[in-house]
Sequence to fold (1158 residues):
Amino acid sequence: MAGWRELRLLLGYAGRLAGAGPWLFGALLLACATLAGSLGLLGLSGWFLSATAIAGLTPATAQAFNFFLPGAGVRFFALLRTASRWGERVVSHEATFRLIAGLRLWLYRRLARLSPSQLGRHHGSDLLNALVRDVDALDNLYPRLLLPLAAALLAFALLALLFGQMAPVLAWLPLGLMAFALFVLPLAGWLAGRRPASALVAGRAGLRRELLDCVDGLEDLALHQPAWQVRRAAALASSQHWLRQQRSLQRRGAWLRAATVLLTGMAAWAALLLIAQGEGPAAPGPWLAAVVLVLLGTHEALQALPGACLELPGTAAAAARLEGLAGQTPRPAFAEAGAQPADNRLTVSGLAFAWPDQPPLFDGLVLTVEEGEHIALLGPSGGGKSTLVQLLAGLEEADAGEIRLGGVELSALDESTLRARLSCAGQFPWAQAATLADNLRLAAPDADAERMMAVLRLVGLADTISTWRDGLETWVEEGGASLSGGQRRRLGLARALLREAPITLLDEPTEGLDPAAEAALIAAVRQHLRGRTLVWVTHRPAGLAAFDRVLRLEQGRLAELSPAAVRALD
Amino acid sequence: MDSGSDMSEAERSADRRGQDAAALRWLRLQARGAGAWGAAAVLGGGLQVLAAIAQAGVLAWMLHMLIVEGGNPFAQPAAWWALPACLLARALTGVLKEEAGQRASERIRGRLREALLDRLHHLGPAWRERRQAGALADLLLEQVEAVEGYYARYRPQQWLALLAPLFILAAVLPQSWAAAGILFLTAPLIPLFMVLVGWGARARQTRQLLALQRMSGHFLDLLRGLPTLRLLDAHERQAQEVARIGEDFRQRTMSVLRLAFLSGTVLEFFASVAIALTAVYLGFSLLGYLDFGFYGAAPELRLAFFILLLAPEFYQPLRDLGTHYHARAEALAAAGQLQAMLDAPSPQPAGGKRTLPPGAPALRLSGLMFAHREGEPVLQGCELELAAGEAVAIVGPSGGGKTTLLRLLLGQLQPQAGELVASDVPFTELDLQHWRERIGWMSQHPRLLAGSLADNLRLARQGADAAAMIEALHFAGLGDWLATLPQGLDTVLGEGGRQLSGGQLRRLALARVRLRPADLLLLDEPTASLDHDTEALVVERLAELRRNRTVLLLSHRRAPLRLADRVLRLDGGRLQPASPAEFEGEGG
Fold:
């Protein structure tokens, strides 16, 4: 069966629950106590009524009837049910939150080692969004499925023992229900939920794409009514399709729940039939009422299971997707405790790289950057400049060739050493949902306000920020949405400069600036990094004359431009 | 973030209640879209209660026969089928209830999505521009789904929580007024329970679900930032942050939940006490200690059982309501956002009915005033006159209102003062939809749709045939690229398909403009972030396209300016002539 691997992975995740062991066990005990209270209350009440009815037949037996003990029992079970239900909720939530925190931390550490391309950055789709949903699905595994299942099984085992005392044949009824809960429900849920679960994931992705097209393409669609009508119709059709898929899954759940109602009821009916047909002890006593009411009451133990079982294939698929992502071997992988490079000379030899399914960007690239040198790297967009930056920064791994820092290959360094030596601002820097100061402190945890303002002044953000009411303490939205593209780029630049590393790589730092501002920024950054290495990557040829060397990356080759050629660019 | 910090806790909760009431009214209004399915769900639930009453009667009779009379109920054929039939009825009505609820909810969600899409179109790109695309898509996808449980389960259950206890009282009352009294005395507590259940669930919702969402959001944010965090060597420090937030979240949430769970516990407690009280009353009546409540008749075990079996059913719908309550809270949270979009005032002017004759239009803008926010005017008395077929370029600092000017011309924004006139027809009388169909527009950030290359081209002209599309691609310099595509025009682009480089995307936008039967071209930074060669190609092709068309061009860069007959500078909200000398030396 194709799902076996997924199921095994899911069990692997269930194994990770062990961390919250005592809490999980406590929740299970309390869940069992709740069930015992419920079933005890029903059973004892039934027995009590029957016993009083028989005793009430003659005044003598009625007088002799001891109602104190059953009365106390009823009160006890009522309180037990109430108190343990509260306890179960509290403890199982406590356990779940502990699991959630652990799962996230584990996943974060795993993913942090992966390269951006391994994280799916270059597939264009938002893998990470789906990933968070998958984590949420796994969060539900314990409280929704494992806990109620284990409690139900324990309850049925106990009932089988108890019923066996009264009439051995009755023990088969809870055992039958137990088999139903243990085997039939999960299997039926698995089979019934497998196809809709994967169809639902695909349906959601399809609808999201259609909706995103309507939102994203509105600029163009607003100008052309027929095109909008086509997109709108496609999105609505996709929505209807997905809604129908959801209903189909819900309907399967409804039938499973109906089967559970029917089965527990039929177990009670079967108990009556067995005893009436003389399969049990000679005279059915008040205990029969207890047996029947308890069997009916077991519905409570089972009612949450059909829905949870139906989610099982979806949860298993989520586990498989997470494993597929988090289980990758990091490329590049860094040494745990690496060598210390002798100096900060950067040498690249025989470097080859191609993105999957695309022609090679370069093959046999050679480059040496001496310590303290300021070089500009020029080239057309799409020519591989940003890729080269990512390779130099150790974010991606080359197909062949090597990059050495101070004579040591990058992968022989530990990551902290590399980061301390080489600072890099990418083309699309990310900003955390935190204050501006927090965002800057990501680069230098102990930077004070003065130092932060100095570097902001350098990158030309200080004037803007001084007009903000909260200044450095201004809140930056998730993903940096409240900053303009240019502001975010400059924030990235400021962070790279705050690192104060011997080597600084800057990818398109001046995009969106006018020529005067661009020239000023080049001068300021070069002044700040005097004596340290700077690699300045740009597609704009203006204002590069001041650099020690200007290299052009085109068609996979690096060519050094003569000073005359550089001046001619201007 | 801190807008609420000035408010007192009481004010804030009053404010929240007001919002909730409005959101609830809105949710109820939407329920009309469900048609008869909403009622069918309540009917299914009602029938389920009746089946439960019948089942209690049959079971009580069978137990009475076996235990008190020592007979065999299975001697009568009814014993063989009655109970299974009741169970089957219960199971099937349960399916009916769920299915009808789902259908009701499905219809409402479908309609909501349709209304939102139409609203999006009505609000237009100027509104859309100020929002994140991902967040808007989420609104149409996830927030619409957030009302699922409210219509599918909560609303039907709300009726059932009232109806089912009434049915059961009606069944018990003819048998024993005292037992009915015990149930009835706890009945006034039901509204109280509803409030309690609601209060607890509300706290649970706001703390648990929202906190969980926030934690997920934070986690997602961090994962997105991983490459940046690694470059800053901050990823391990952030791992400690993940752990700290998880721990913090657990402690704060649990402190609230411990209390919130009490509300469910109170309901549980009353249900248990009522069952225990009923059992004790019935037992003492059977023993003969109590002789009231059965209308003078001697109580029988059959009757006692019937009542005892129904006692838990009396409270069950309420307990179910409690378990579905989170669906209500979720829907309430979503309703605010959905309503906000559906009720948002459109920035687009309404326009009129007049259309222009074919041919390049002349444009006259006079005294235009516009501000996105009060007190921060972008345009102040902007004047512009364009003859038919003239090309004008506008330069100026970014954020200076150039794009706003284009939006006004597209009829996507309404000026606060001043007038726009196209070939003697004021915009207030112009059929704006028709007007937009005659505009060829090249945006600063061309978009790629997830679809075939042909789909992406038909965005400009839905009826374009293959020959026209291929011609347009060749025109835009994408002919060689097209030749490398095995699937040609059917090649899937965008998410899950082939990605385009920035230069290719821009050329695709150029091909779109080529396909457009336009009389007016609005070009917003047509060559931003392009390399020299691609820019030269784009400018050359645009020079060809501008013939017989009126053109308005915005640019930072020098190269496209040669397309223009005149260059104007937009600064301080006004247009002034700019001398060509200003651009000498500006990098392009």
User: Anything to note?
Assistant: Confidence is low (pLDDT under 50) at residues 1-6, 584-588 of chain B. Chain B touches chain A through 149 residues (CB under 8 Å).
